[in-house]
Design brief:
Elements lengths: L3 E6 L6 H10 L4 E5 L5 H5 L13 E4 L2 E4 L1 H11 L9 H25 L4 H12 L4 H13 L12 H14 L13 H12 L4 H6 L6
Parallel strand pairs: 1-2
Antiparallel strand pairs: 1-3, 3-4
Length: about 210
């Protein structure tokens, strides 16, 4: 039986979809976390035997290290029973499209996230939502509607749901504090609340450790 160690910061962000996959699969793993504002991480990130790229997340599977968040997600989604990475090429292609869009969104919101002034940060988030990111959010909203409103791909929970939920969660349940950010897309808000209250992830979400991000 394989052993798993996931190393990331004490945050949700790019580590959380992997944690969700472990929870869905009922797979035990070692959840190693570092304080991203502390002194320990800067001292150890240069250890290439533990952190091949000097960054996290890193997944250790029986001593073999896997880096890059989306590679980790795909690996676990394929490895665990449940078809989390799709049942066929069409579903996997849909999931890959969503993975790519989320990657673009993460890059787009980073400057606003790093803005120290709270009021300016909020304004920048909203500005991006209504301009650069509008096609992406409209695509999510329309895709969810076409899929029936409960899940994004295949009428069941997949990796696509985990990463979209994680994005919405970043705005609605973190120190960012923009609970109205997705109000222009009520079906996405309803989707988010349903995942929290009535889905295979509900138990995990109720008991997971809270972090600011």
């Amino acid at each position: 039986m394989s052993t798993y160690k996931l190393t990331y910061f004490n945050a949700r962000a790019r580590g959380e979809p992997a944690r969700m996959l472990f929870a869905l699969a009922g797979q035990k793993y070692e959840d190693i976390r570092y304080d991203y504002e502390g002194q320990e991480w800067p001292k150890i990130k240069g250890d290439r035997k533990r952190f091949p790229l000097g960054q996290v997340p890193v997944l250790d599977v029986d001593g073999q290290l896997l880096t890059q968040s989306r590679a980790i997600y795909r690996f676990l989604a394929r490895r665990f029973p449940g078809d989390y990475y799709g049942k066929n090429d069409d579903e996997r292609a849909q999931i890959d499209v969503i993975l790519g869009i989320i990657a673009d969104i993460e890059i787009a919101i980073t400057p606003a996230f790093e803005t120290p002034d709270a009021a300016k940060r909020e304004a920048e988030f909203v500005k991006g939502r209504d301009s650069t990111l509008k096609p992406s959010y409209e695509f999510f909203s329309q895709s969810l509607q076409k899929a029936g409103g409960k899940y994004f791909v295949g009428n069941r929970m997949t990796l696509a749901d985990l990463i979209i939920f994680n994005l919405i969660d970043f705005f609605m349940d973190s120190s960012v504090g923009l609970k109205t950010y997705f109000d222009p897309y009520p079906n996405l808000v309803k989707y988010y609340e349903t995942i929290k209250s009535d889905s295979p992830l509900t138990g995990y979400l109720k008991t997971r450790k809270y972090t600011p991000y």
